[in-house]
Amino acid sequence: MNTFKQFKIAFILTAFFGCTDLEPEVFDRIDGDVVVLDAADQLIEDTTLVKNYLSTSYNQLYQYLDEREIFALTEVTTDEMVVPTRGTDWSDNGLWIQLHEHSWNPDHEFIQSAWDGLSRGVARSFEVKQLFTDFIRLKPELTDFLVPYNAELDVLLAYYSWQYIDLFGVLPTLNDQLSPVVLSRSAGTQWAIDLLERAIVDLYSKEELPEYGRVVKESAHALLAKIYLNRFIYEGLNAPTSDDMSKVILNADAVINSGSYQLAGDYFSMFEAANETSPESLLVIQNQDNLWNYAHTTTRNLMTLHYNQQAGVVNYAPWNGMCTTEEFFNTWDDDQNPSNGVTSIDTRFNNGRYNELFGFDLGMLFGQQYDPSGTMLNDRNGNPLSFTAIIGNIRQASEIEGVRVIKWAPDDNSPSPFQADNDVALLRFADVVLVKAEALWRMGNTEEALNTLNELRIQRGANPLGSLSAEGNEILRERGLELYWEGHRRTDLIRFDRFTKGTWFAKQVSPDHYSIFPIPTKALAANSSLTQNTGY
Amino acid sequence: MKKYILSIASVFFLLNAFAQDLLKGKVTDNTGFGLPGVTIIIEGDFTDMVGTTTDFEGNFSIDLPVGSKTVTFNFIGFKPKSFDINDQRFFEVEMSENISELDEIVVIGYGTETKSDVTGAMSSLDPKDFNKGVMTNANEMMQGKASGIQINRSSGAPGASSNVRIRGISSISRSRGPLYVVDGVPIQGAVGAVTSSGIDGGGTDNLDPLNYINPDDIISIDILKDASATAIYGSRGAAGVIIITTKKGEEGQNNLSFSSYTSVSSLRSKIDVLGAEDWVKARQLMASETGDLTFLDENFGAATDWQNEIFRTGVTQNYSVSASGGSKSSNYLFSLSYMDQEGVVINSGLDRITGRLNLRQNLLNDILILEANLTAANINNQWAPVGNGGGAGGDLIGNALRANPTMPVYNGNGDFFQPNTTTFNPVAMANLIDDRSQTDSFLANVAATFKLAKGLTNKTNVGLEISNTERNTNTSQLLLPLEAQEGIASLANNRGHNFLFENFTTYSFTQDIHDVTLMGGYAYQQQTSEFNTIFARGFDSEQILYTNNIGLSDPEIVRNIGSGKQQYEIQSFFGRLQYQILSKYRLTASLRADGTSRFGGNNKYGFFPSAAFAWTVSDESFMRGIGKLSFLNVRLGYGQTGNDNVPDYQYLNLATFNNEGGIERTQIANPDLKWETTIMTNLGIDFGLWNDRLNGTVELFDKRTEDMLLFLEQPAPSIVPQKWVNTDAQLINKGLELNMTMFWIANDKFSWSTTAVYTSINTTIKNLSVPIVGGQLNGQGLVGTFVQRIDNGPNLWNFILREHEGFDEEGISTFAGGENQQQNFEDQSPYENHIIGLTNNVTFRNFDLQFFIESKLGKHVYNNTANTYLNKGALAQGFNTSPADLITTRSINDIALASTYYLEDASFVRLANLTLGYNMPVSNVDWIQNARVYFTGQNIFLLTDYTGYDPDVNSSASGEGIDYTSYPNPRTWLIGINLNF
Lengths: 536, 981
Prior knowledge:
heterodimer, A: mainly alpha, 3-stranded antiparallel sheet, 18 helices, 10 strands, globular, B: mainly beta, 22-stranded antiparallel beta barrel, 5-stranded mixed sheet, 9 helices, 51 strands, 49% strand, disordered N terminus
């Protein structure tokens, strides 16, 4: 029996220590449910904090700057941009060539990244909306205050949603219960339009909220104009309805007539480091030189300049990647005869204001390149560094082939790479003007379309056009000249039926289904409501 | 098996009143030769140690104190013998060699067993089994020595971690090694790993978590393989358990020992690249073929073998001293070691100091036993910029392979020759990147065992493991290609804190033919990990090492700083029954309930049962005299183990703040997440033939992982693209293991034995909803290239590649089905089909010789190094290539796309270790017991078709069998001495 007693002691000893609930303290993050209450209290004390909460959604705009995400999908697939393989550089297992040749598949890494980025964009916007809903639940007195900010959020949500619709032909979103649902391209478009039209009612106008970089009523109008313009593509129609085109004009006019925006007097100033004063920014990615971010515009310089050029004050060897195609370069030519050289009086073509600082021009970089002291540069093999419009072979390009493009000037005050201050406008006033001109042309109002177009051309130092052709090539061309490398080209080519059918350097006619990207393999497997886009 | 023949001859007995206290005798082996140096210990009613050793002929004599009761004979390699003295004063003892290892004590979880009683599948290694040579940690010591365990070193860098897999991969969720238990404390593992940022070479190798345990302190490594053995560790047993036991003082043997070695290591073989002369010729040929005269440029006129410049002969010194001893009621072991290891890459190495104190004291008439094991270590690593990732700039080895051989190392003025901002001078790179880590580790456990009654004990074990690693990386702005960064400093600190409390009660009793042992207990473990990092750039001066005063960095350049802290708790209740009848029918059953803080609500607890049955068939009467079969034991085991290896706090909604003060959720609560379960069935047969001259084990197992945890894509839109979920996918490993030892000859003058281990594992995957893509390649032009996949069927990290057909007339690669066509090369797996280890032990008089041959057959490695660096296109750009590539018809314009061109057969046979030792005859020197000198060679000879440095590599973080400029596994020659006083 003694043994039995000892057993009991042993058992009690053992059981004594069994006492943890296995919920250790969280140290480096916060309980997502608890933080909401604190935040609501703080917001009542300091209403300017609302901007902080909106940043969760705004910050998702940075994904448009990464050269391996949406930007690659919207530009490398077009005549505006090509990334040839030079030696082994930029071979990247064929990812860039697949984009340019239109031979990608659902496993393409950049397509996956673009999808994930948009998924985050939509989800983060809903997250903030939910936060506002919780604020109101906890502090009903915040209800009225939050209305315009909720609308601001809706514009961002509509923007990410529109990109989904445009790139992938489908809109994965959340329903009222915040469960994932999938809307078709057509239904998704209508959803985004409804969202924007409701938001417009509640939004501040630019005049009421002049703070730089904030989404205002005019931003929503600009986005609506773009969606209406492209809607016939999303509906699978051959031509737009006049109803939609009137909506385009209505919304474009709302921006134009607001008086808060105008065409910039100096084209390249809109892309310089200190471009916060740009009169054209309707939706903008804000960069600051006290914030390090890979997706700063430094990337836009590094990706195109030759190794031996200097991307700003910082001596950081560029990557010698992206360039433009011969065909696109030739569209600049004033006499439309590239064989005698490409020249243009257009101020958007080329500008030497930074020659003394960096050596290279802004705009199109072609021919011999120089260092800031004016000395001719060589390539790494000792040949003169003279960019050629012609690229012999997309798979075997030399270091100097391809015209380079610098749109966002290097920030000479940037203390380090990836800290450039240049902001990047995703929606710009000139785009609204062009959208309006195109809608007028599509409605058959060619004369007014021409006038609108020429207004822009004159502002940019180009010769006014005499007429518009039935195919509207002048409009497509003008969009290229104005908006090159800003991420609009793919959508524009599709609208003019040139995306798959068009041919340019290293691009043959591709099957029609390439005008929508495939749903990435992993995304498809994760959601049974999705079906793969036709053709993939 | 515990029966052995003893022959006692009391030939002569004379009662002599004056000499009655003198005990004499002779000790011989079974052939009648006298055995010198046998330890004889007298025990009885006295406290002093009484003992002697036999002389050169095996004779002994000793004065018997009053009260002498027993005499014990001990000799290494022989079975100890013990006799009651009574009135006998002359003993003639024949000792038999300890051929069989079945009487060894092995450590199972929460207890020990004699090896013959074990019901589960396990391998036990003791110092004679360990790999000899420069051994930084226990993983290196057991590589190849036990069946069912695959160890491959991720790198040859001093102290780098190894990939350790017991019975194949048990989970594809996160790379998961076995559970290591050191003196009863499950250690935290990867805390010592701090990767460095800021080098273009990419992340360097992780440190082995066992580095802080001095290999000389280890007395045994027990590897629990099947679930019936590992289930007692429940939630963390799925990937196997490795139990490490450190040396303890032995009763009656005060021992002072000293050991030391010095070794030289060097590169086994270089990768063949063009020398300066051939390089110039090849470029001249290019110029004449293409007419492009720029190929004549970039001849800097020197002739540099860059591999010679960055590799060196590394000298390693190791000193270890230990003192141990004990009495019946206490023992102690103290040890101190110092190791200074130079890597074969310049500016890489490790130095380490470890100290250990192991104590035991019996109190209260042996009712209470207190034990304490303490170890502390300080490890300093110096890292060369050799990385397993690496951007376009490449790492040190990559740059050494591709560097233009006509470049000189130095300019005339003694500065590094650095031609431009895109070309690395490898020697400059190695010297101007200063990367060091310092790890301080401490592991202590204190245990109290109460003997509450006969057969009933209660043990409390409290353990604490603390590990602190600080890594300082300085990339000088004098390194021209990184000049623009104006000097990069990276400080990274990791801290791990691991606390264990456990209490368990064991009760054993014997009734007639029944032996029963019951064990039940409770354990609580809490692991906290913290990190902080500072990354800053822009230094004006080279006078002060950047990280020594990081505040001198440019405040305008954004400094990246970060820190984090996590905690993990696990609480367990466990019990085990061991039941034997006549010690030939044995049953073991265990149950463990583990609760983890990683899961929520009702899923916190998992239950892990196991049962195993063993039958010693050879003890049955019907087996007596059947042929030459001396031993036959059959074991059948079944068990479940778990895996909770997901990030902490999975059941919570977690959020953080962004730079602007916005709230961002970082984790969506996943209350449904639960254990991944591994179910294993094992059949084992242990056998002995010819009186165990040949003995061995055959194991067959079936291991299935269910409710598999995967990090899967979430339906869009989703804040985090992926999330941990339990899936229906199954991972099935079926395997065969053999372990056999043959004693060809065994006598005291000459003995020879051979031990062979063999492992073969087949892996199948079922019900995986979407293939898992991995095997990311690195290097310029290969960004975004993934070449491996896990998919249903026998597709564990199969290579998915373009099939290279050859070169067309223009010298451009052609691929079956075109450039966008990739195929699954199922039959060219990165995993070996057969793993063979062959150890021979030969002793001849005072000499001993051991050699170990290791072979892995049927494995394939993707040569990412060659893909990135060794091609004609690189030569055309002014870099280098291999002669093998140069003689192909390949064009300089051929893009080195990932393809089967770089997939190589990496089967190999390696003479991994050879040791020749000599025991000096010191029986005439009374102050020394034992003196041994030895000579060891490691990685001596390698037979393989693989063209990289070493076929047994993996440098991919997201796949298997990918070699990207891995730190080569060196060849080492070593001379050492062991002295026992």
